[in-house]
Amino acid sequence: MSLHNSSTAYGLISKLLHWVIALAIFAQIGIALCMEYLSGPVVAKLYFVHKSIGLTMVFLSVIWLVWRFTQKKPPYLAGMSRWQKWLATCVHDLMSALVFIMAFSGWFMSTASGYIPSFWGWFKMAAPVMKSKMIAGVCDDIHGICAWILCGLILLHILAVVKHVMVNRDGPLRRMM
User: How many CB atoms lie within 10 A of CB 61?
Assistant: First the structure.
């Protein structure tokens, strides 16, 4: 398997970035839900992990963005109509943008709130924003709205994959495995 994408298949790096980012997103959703409903010292640990994964997502998002624009994209599956290709492109692009926006808005929110996030306990990473309740509030709103939209798009993405695997049987999952 090639590291780079070809005109017919995704390469190893694209596949790894896809699955690592997907797993990180699912972990972030689970952790965020736990932070909402739990209390006590465990919540501080969850915030630490959530922020550390979030900072990891900042790095991965930048790497993914550079990789995406330097690689060929394999063609759509045979038999997809124009509207399906358009919708797939919109969903993928919007999910990518939302992951990027969420990673940065979370980082900015934490810094603006006066809580400089620690990258897995190795070092602190302040975002280039000043401490400000207003900035923190705006970033919190952006982060939350994007989270709900991203969850809906992920569901749509998964449903499309299930349709292609179970109904069309045209193998989109094999392309990303």
Answer: 20
Q: Following CA atoms 29, 139, 52, 66 in sequence, which dihedral angle do they give, to the nearest 10 degrees?
A: 90
Instruction: Return the amino acid letter for 101.
Output: I
- β-partners of residue 124 are 118
**Banded pLDDT at 29 (limits 50, 70, 90):** very high
Q: Beta-strand (E) ranges in the chain?
A: 118-119, 123-124
Measured CA distances, 9 to 14, 28, 73, 149 (Å): 10, 29, 8, 29
113-133 tens-digit pLDDT:
999 999 999 999 999 999 999
What would the two tokens of residue 171 be?
Answer: 């193998």
State which amino acid sits at residue 30. G
Buried b (16+ CB within 10 A) or exposed e, 139-160: bbebbeebbebbeebbeebeeb
